[in-house]
Design a protein that fits this description.
Elements: E1 10-13, H1 29-34, H2 36-42, E2 46-49, E3 53-54, E4 66-70, H3 77-89, E5 93-98, H4 108-113, E6 140-141, E7 151-152, H5 180-199, E8 203-206, H6 221-237, E9 242-245, H7 250-253, E10 260-262, H8 270-275, H9 303-316, E11 321-323, H10 340-350, E12 358-360, H11 419-423, H12 429-442, E13 452-456, E14 467-471, E15 474-478, E16 485-488, H13 495-507, H14 513-519, E17 521-522, E18 528-529, E19 547-550, E20 560-564, E21 575-579, E22 607-610, E23 615-618, E24 622-626, E25 629-633
Parallel strand pairs: 1-2, 1-12, 2-5, 5-8, 8-9, 9-10, 10-11
Antiparallel strand pairs: 3-4, 6-7, 13-14, 14-15, 15-22, 16-19, 17-18, 20-21, 22-23, 24-25
Helix pairs in contact: 10-12, 13-14
Length: about 625
């Protein structure tokens, strides 16, 4: 794995909707440059920029007219070079969006391919041998060119399919993948990649990466061979260049040239059960909301996610990264189905699971999905592509153009979230995201490829549906339900006695072992209570099970229960303490991150403990017991 991917956190930018610097109503590359400090301070150190190549924009840029030219509405090639340079100076990598499966019908390659006489590009696209021929099960267009043939489409009418060959040949006009014309298509795409990599691009997100070869095998044998061939080129010429596949098939993508793959939202899959799993998404009308795991009252267990995720993770985690997204340009924004409190839990979880997380622009402030008429082929996806909401000025600070001239309408609700409104609010979603990402960067145990183990994931029973997992030496837990719960976990040998000795020393008490743990009061700015309930005092302490109180999403602020999981050379004791939510507490010792860590006061039931560097993330603040001292700590 490339070293820089271990700590990578990506920020996806839909360029036409991010920030407009020239007042034409459309975002541009200079706008991205202007906001690099914001992206860095958020905690993201890599960008994925949706297609910005020259295009007629019948599919929002996924219909490429010139692979080597920045679309004039976004700027120039010089602007792209300036973006790479400025981002690198701030420690940010930049991935462009590569569309290898098709071009626009206006691409010069396709125009040449339409000519009746044979030329260099005649077989760059897939053509039948008659103007009346069907596409052998594929969508096709006929009667629009001088050439005696019909051409195969990938998606819209404007997107003729590039010719990488056929796995199974049924018609005489179909070519094998090793045909010189198909090999030339692969080489042409390598040439495109070299052009941008030489300019400073750090890699590519690959659109529909699994769909190159038609009539391929179930396991995409021939398409996978092409990507291995491309990876061989990259490893020799651009060894630090990264590839991420839009595939959602890690067993194929990660074993055949890709560094990363996305865990995409497909109706009913494991990711959908985490974040969405509602009806009406493709009708721009999300409804029957409330079934996802992170919905407080859903009753859904984590097993619906793990049953799919774990087998794929175990089969591929040594090959690359299967990455979580908050959302993307093709998906309904998560705020459509999750409250702000639920979003905090969702982000805290996906930012601490394996892989490199991807934050879709605006998700860090909870931007809303807006049901809008289609724009540039967006259809139901259009409502997730609205302009970034920077502040409360005109067009939410996205553009100085008249409202009717901007790319898409902004959210006009009185409570529309903005960066400016949340920046100074310690309880905001924005500051929660900053805290979480700062914590992630501060702990190598949360690196993309760090070890992952499920510790506790019971089947849901009413509101009892916790999830506890381990990354390296960090232990993470989430309780999305609306009630407090208890976790039965084993105590390590001798931990019980050691804890009692430490507590007795702190309190200068010599009480009965179990009574001491149950009754000791830790004096601080507010009185706090450690609780421990042994299952059976007569049992061996090596097998004693404490009951661990995990707070609910709506616990009373004055009796907030959280839990501590010291590990290894510290403790493996599980304890609970109660503290007021807004209790003033000092910042922890400095952590190796560039940005200051805001102090969240949101009532999140999520906590991570690291005894080795003496730091804790939790909300609200809690107490920790480490190295013979009791100290107050928070982030």
């Amino acid at each position: 794995m490339k070293q820089w991917l271990k700590d990578a956190v990506f920020y996806e930018i839909y360029p036409q909707s991010f920030y407009d610097t020239n007042g034409d109503g459309i975002g541009d590359l200079q706008g991205i440059i202007a906001k690099l400090d914001y992206i860095r301070d958020l905690g993201c150190n890599a960008l994925w920029i949706n297609p910005c190549f020259d295009s007629p924009f019948k599919d929002a840029g996924y219909d490429v007219r010139d692979y080597k030219k920045i679309a004039p509405r976004y700027g120039t090639n010089e602007d792209a070079a300036a973006l790479f340079k400025a981002a690198h100076e701030k420690g940010i990598r930049v991935l462009f969006d590569l569309v290898p499966g098709h071009t626009s019908e206006e691409h010069p390659w396709f125009k040449a391919s339409c000519k009746p006489g044979h030329n260099e590009y005649s077989d760059r696209f897939i053509w039948t041998d008659s103007c009346f021929a069907s596409g052998d099960g594929m969508p096709f267009i006929g009667g629009e060119t001088e050439r005696n043939g019909t051409y195969i489409l990938n998606f819209f009418k404007c997107q003729p399919a590039l010719n990488y060959g056929y796995g199974k040949i049924n018609q005489k006009w179909q070519k094998p993948t090793d045909d010189p014309a198909c090999v030339a298509t692969v080489e042409a795409m390598k040439d495109v990649m070299r052009f941008w990599l030489d300019m400073g691009c750090d890699g590519f997100r690959v659109d529909m990466a699994s769909s190159l070869v038609k009539n391929d095998t179930k396991n995409k044998k021939h398409t996978c061979k092409i990507w291995r061939n491309i990876r061989d080129m990259l490893d020799v010429e651009y060894p630090e260049a990264a590839l991420i596949a839009e595939w959602n098939g890690p067993r194929m993508s990660l074993k055949n040239g890709f560094d990363m793959d996305f865990y995409l939202n497909w109706q009913g899959n494991g990711y959908s059960w985490l974040m969405r799993n509602y009806d009406g998404a493709m009708d721009s009308n999300p409804h029957n909301i409330g079934k996802a795991y992170f919905c407080k009252n859903s009753g859904t267990g984590i097993d619906k996610f793990l049953d799919e995720y774990l087998p794929a993770y175990k089969a591929t985690h040594k090959d690359g990264l299967w990455c979580f997204i908050t959302c993307n340009h093709d998906t309904i924004r998560p705020s459509a189905g999750l409250t702000t409190d639920e979003l905090r839990l969702a982000y805290a979880t996906i930012f601490t699971l394996p892989g490199a997380p991807f934050v879709y622009y605006g998700d860090e402030i909870g931007m809303r999905y807006l049901p809008l008429p289609t724009k540039e082929g967006g259809y139901f996806r259009t409502g997730s592509r609205t302009p970034m909401q920077w502040d409360d000025t005109a067009n939410h600070g996205f553009s100085t153009a008249d409202a009717q001239d901007i790319y898409l309408p902004v959210d006009t609700a009185a409570d529309a979230p903005t960066v400016a409104a949340q920046a100074d609010d310690p309880d905001s979603l924005l500051n929660s995201v900053k805290s979480l990402l700062a914590f992630r960067h501060a702990h190598a145990d949360l690196n993309a490829d760090a070890p992952f183990k499920v510790l506790y994931a019971p089947k849901a029973k009413d509101d009892y549906r916790p999830f506890v997992w381990q990354r390296g030496d960090l232990i993470c837990a989430v309780n999305p339900a609306g009630v407090s719960i208890e976790l039965p976990l084993e105590l390590a040998e001798d931990v019980h006695d050691r804890l009692v000795q430490e507590l007795a020393q702190q309190q200068k008490q010599n009480q009965n072992v179990d009574d001491c743990i149950q009754k000791v009061q830790i004096q601080s700015q507010h009185s706090s209570c450690l609780r421990y309930q042994p299952r059976n005092r007569m049992m061996s302490r090596a097998t004693t099970k404490p009951k661990i109180a995990v707070p609910s999403a709506r616990a009373a602020p004055s009796s907030r229960l959280v839990w501590i999981l010291p590990e290894a050379s510290g403790w493996r004791l599980m304890a609970s303490v109660a503290l007021p939510v807004a209790m003033p507490m000092p910042m922890p010792p400095p952590m190796p991150v560039s940005a200051a860590i805001p102090a969240p006061r949101a009532t999140s039931p999520f906590i991570i403990i690291s005894p080795f560097n003496r730091s804790i993330y939790s909300s609200p603040p809690i107490l920790s017991f480490m190295n013979s001292e009791v100290r107050k700590t928070k982030t």
